[in-house]
């Protein structure tokens, strides 16, 4: 574009020069060149005008968005001011609570101390009661002993009374005998009388003693009764003291808990007070940040306004450029040479239906013919396609797309919203059999259509001819990228239903389909009414393969082709040695992973992860990189390639270790290797795959795995029936959208087995769950960590032999201008022109 502009500027300066210029009739060749340059200027002007218009619309949308953000920011600042005031009040209240809590903690500690004192006093009372009970018990024992002594005295008194009675009787007998003796017994009578008196006195004293003893015994019985009552009272007192002690123990325990809780509350209140102070500081910082954000928004709005003014001026300059282009002298009766571009796609497309495409040869042919709501930019960024603008609601699920007015299909009909609804529903309908349902299955109601329960997706609503609303079941981060892939291209319903799309497809892309000769070539021509402006090239010839007997280098040197994509089959050393094309070799990253798919669903040894790990350990990937890819690749550690979110440099690839491979087989129950050979499918005519297969055969044979190699035509090889039959297959997966979901969801989700992409029939519930979770993550760092985890898990489960991530190598002829490598491996030609001058 810059060279065109410089040429235009120089020519304009020449024409505006006041010096007379001698007129010379141009030669036919010069006239043709002049006609070509003028044509390119015209095309450049129209495309530039479109680009400026797109940019003006984008800046206008940006300014509107910034003003919405500004309004929201003002509300945010008001809310922040209110929040700050509330937080300051909360901080003051929290500090009061903290002070009260500290005071309560002190009171609780005092109460705890008093309760401890009370418990000690109760324990002392309990001890005193025990001592009283012991004293009363001892006194009772003494009283009982006194009673026993009194009883003994009573028995002694009874003996005394008996003796006194006998003595009295004896004295009576003695008196009788003394009376009989007369005077001789008078003296004896006196003695007998004295004895009688003494016995009577003894009896009287004994009776008094008995009376006293009886009184003592009665009193002892009363004392004993009182002592029993005292013991019962002491026991009752002890019980009361025990109850009081238990109550005080409970009080002490509760007081301790209360004290601890109050201390915790005090600590928490103190922390809360400190936290509230921190919140105040953060709120103040937020207020300062909000002020800076407001300033930045104001500045961004001013910048957007300035950009809009600059774009207006650029638009005026563009119109001036158009006027200059229109005023350029145009040779008469000169037919402008067509800008024909030729390149080789490498194989026939599997289909001409974009919604059925899922291989690179097919998409590289069809992406120039078809376009979706969105498109990929010069990288994996998303730019407007048939949708000029879009908006995502606050729920993160509802997308509203505004279609371009005037965008046309190749049959001349304007693209309308009902075409969008029809096309996306067609992808999902079971009779279509599209392998691309995963791209739009997250739309609300998509599952019912896929299961044949409904013809229409309730989540796709046509608002008017130029507005369609799409509601997803849940937020899905890469939705716009999915809509940019060829598999979700927008088609005219009437063409599809007529069946014409299978032989002469109609899209809305920069080039329209002309013819297709299977095994030979396809012809595309520029679409004059392309919404983005007619492309520079008039015609594209896409060869299915190079002519027989012509090498890649010969095709370049003979200018048979204008662009060459090098593969593992290319003779890189010969090309690098060429003085011209060796210097024109371009190298760039591409989101691509070469692998051997292992049939996990066949039910044999490959259903065991340890067997799959053993095969990974037995393949020397570095040899593959060096000998097959000439060093233009790196060994793969998992499915995700460098440059894709989730790729982790720290993930180590499986090493080449035959002993470790044998150990894995032993752990899997195959100490002597596998009993039956495994069948490996490779692409017919692909010498690089044949060479690799021979190496695989050698390495696997060393660990007891025999390998049968079968080469099949491309279409048959990638068919579901062939994939189910074989044990292993060789493929390369190139990213369709650049998103990690595109690399993992179609390839490893259980629901996508077969044509959908999961050609290894792998199934793991944890992988399915993580894939679903990853689709809703919007934070870039979280997505990176999540998909890195998924990448590691899939590498461990080993449904593939992860071979390598190779670079894309490409050569263009010196006259090819405006071409650039794309990380998705797409050959984009709408901005390319040829300069043979």
Describe the overall structure.
The protein is built from 19 helices and 21 strands. The chain is 54% helix and 12% strand. It has a 6-stranded mixed sheet with strand order 14-18-13-17-15-16. A 4-stranded mixed sheet has the order 1-10-9-8, with no helix packed on it. Helix 17 packs antiparallel against helix 18. The protein has 837 residues and is an alpha+beta fold. It folds into 3 domains: 311 residues, Helix Hairpins (Orthogonal Bundle); 108 residues, Dipeptide-binding Protein, Domain 1 (Dipeptide-binding Protein, domain 1); 216 residues, Dipeptide-binding Protein, Domain 3 (Dipeptide-binding Protein, domain 3, Roll), CATH 3.10.105.10. The longest helix is centred in the N-terminal third of the chain and has 154 residues.
């Amino acid at each position: 574009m810059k060279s065109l502009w410089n040429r235009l500027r120089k020519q304009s300066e020449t024409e505006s020069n006041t010096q007379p210029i001698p007129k010379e009739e141009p030669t036919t060749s010069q006239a043709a060149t002049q006609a070509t340059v003028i044509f390119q200027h015209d095309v450049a002007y129209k495309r530039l005008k479109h680009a400026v218009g797109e940019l003006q619309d984008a800046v206008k949308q940006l300014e509107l968005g910034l003003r919405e953000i500004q309004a929201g920011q003002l509300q945010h600042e008001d809310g922040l001011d209110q929040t700050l005031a509330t937080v300051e009040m909360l901080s003051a209240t929290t500090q009061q609570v903290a002070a009260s809590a500290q005071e309560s903690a002190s009171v609780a500690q005092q109460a705890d101390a008093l309760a401890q004192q009370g418990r000690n006093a109760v324990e002392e009372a309990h001890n005193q009661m025990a001592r009283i009970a012991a004293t009363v018990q001892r006194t009772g024992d003494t009283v009982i002993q006194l009673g026993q002594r009194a009883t003994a005295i009573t028995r002694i008194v009874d003996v005394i009374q008996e003796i006194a009675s006998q003595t009295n009787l004896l004295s009576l007998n003695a008196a009788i005998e003394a009376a009989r003796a007369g005077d001789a017994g008078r003296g004896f009578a006196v003695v007998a009388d004295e004895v009688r008196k003494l016995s009577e006195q003894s009896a009287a004293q004994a009776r008094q003693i008995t009376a006293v003893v009886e009184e003592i015994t009665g009193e002892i019985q009363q004392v004993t009764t009182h002592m029993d009552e005292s013991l019962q009272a002491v026991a009752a007192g002890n019980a009361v003291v025990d109850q009081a002690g238990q109550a005080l123990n409970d009080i002490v325990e509760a007081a301790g808990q209360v004290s601890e809780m109050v201390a915790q509350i005090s600590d928490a209140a103190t922390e809360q007070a400190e936290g509230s102070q921190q919140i105040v500081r953060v709120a103040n910082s937020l207020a300062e940040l909000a002020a800076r954000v407001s300033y930045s928004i104001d500045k961004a709005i001013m910048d957007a306004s300035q950009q809009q003014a600059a774009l207006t001026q650029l638009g005026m300059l563009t119109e001036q450029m158009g006027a200059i282009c229109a005023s350029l002298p145009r040779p008469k009766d000169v037919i402008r040479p067509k800008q024909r571009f030729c390149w080789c796609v490498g194989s026939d497309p599997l289909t001409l239906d974009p919604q059925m495409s899922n291989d690179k040869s097919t998409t590289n042919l069809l992406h120039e013919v078809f376009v979706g709501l969105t498109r990929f930019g010069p990288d994996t960024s998303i730019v407007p396609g048939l949708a000029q603008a879009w908006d995502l609601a606050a729920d993160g699920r509802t997308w509203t797309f505004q279609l371009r007015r005037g965008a046309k299909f190749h049959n001349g009909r304007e693209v309308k919203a009902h075409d969008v609804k029809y096309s996306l529903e067609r992808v999902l309908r079971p009779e279509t059999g599209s392998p691309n349902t995963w791209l739009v299955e997250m739309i609300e109601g998509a599952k019912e259509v896929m299961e044949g329960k409904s013809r229409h997706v309730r989540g796709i609503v046509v608002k008017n001819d130029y507005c369609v609303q799409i509601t997803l079941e849940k937020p899905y981060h890469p939705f716009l990228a999915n809509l940019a892939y060829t598999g979700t291209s927008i088609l005219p319903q009437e063409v599809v239903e007529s069946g014409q799309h299978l032989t002469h497809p109609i899209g809305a892309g920069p080039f329209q389909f002309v013819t297709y000769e299977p095994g030979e070539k396809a012809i595309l021509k520029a679409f004059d009414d392309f919404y983005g402006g007619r492309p520079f090239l008039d015609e594209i010839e896409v060869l299915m393969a190079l002519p027989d007997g012509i090498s890649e280098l010969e095709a370049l040197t003979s200018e048979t082709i204008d662009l060459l994509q090098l593969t593992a089959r290319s003779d890189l050393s010969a090309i690098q040695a060429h003085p011209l094309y060796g210097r024109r070799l371009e190298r760039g990253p591409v989101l691509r992973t070469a692998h051997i798919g292992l049939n996990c669903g066949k039910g044999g040894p490959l259903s065991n992860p340890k067997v799959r790990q053993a095969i990974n350990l037995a393949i020397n990937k570095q040899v593959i990189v060096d000998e097959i890819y000439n060093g233009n690749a790196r060994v793969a550690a998992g499915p995700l390639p460098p440059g894709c979110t989730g790729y982790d440099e720290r993930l180590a690839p499986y090493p080449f270790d035959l002993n470790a491979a044998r150990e894995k087989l032993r752990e899997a129950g195959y100490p002597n290797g596998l009993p039956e050979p495994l069948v490996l499918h490779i692409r017919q005519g692909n010498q690089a795959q044949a060479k690799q297969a021979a190496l695989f055969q050698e390495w696997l044979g060393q660990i007891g795995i025999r390998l049968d190699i079968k080469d099949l035509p491309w279409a048959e090889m990638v068919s579901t029936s062939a994939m189910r039959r074989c044990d292993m297959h060789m493929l390369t997966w190139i990213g369709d959208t650049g998103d990690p979901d595109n690399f993992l969801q179609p390839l490893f989700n259980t629901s996508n087995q077969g044509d959908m992409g999961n050609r290894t029939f792998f199934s793991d519930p944890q992988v399915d769950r993580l894939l679903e979770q990853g689709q809703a993550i919007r934070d870039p760092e979280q997505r990176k960590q999540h998909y890195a985890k998924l990448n590691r898990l899939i590498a461990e489960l080993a449904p593939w032999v992860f071979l390598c991530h190779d670079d894309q190598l490409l050569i263009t002829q010196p006259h090819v201008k405006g071409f650039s490598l794309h990380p998705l491996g797409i050959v984009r030609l709408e901005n390319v022109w040829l300069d043979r001058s």
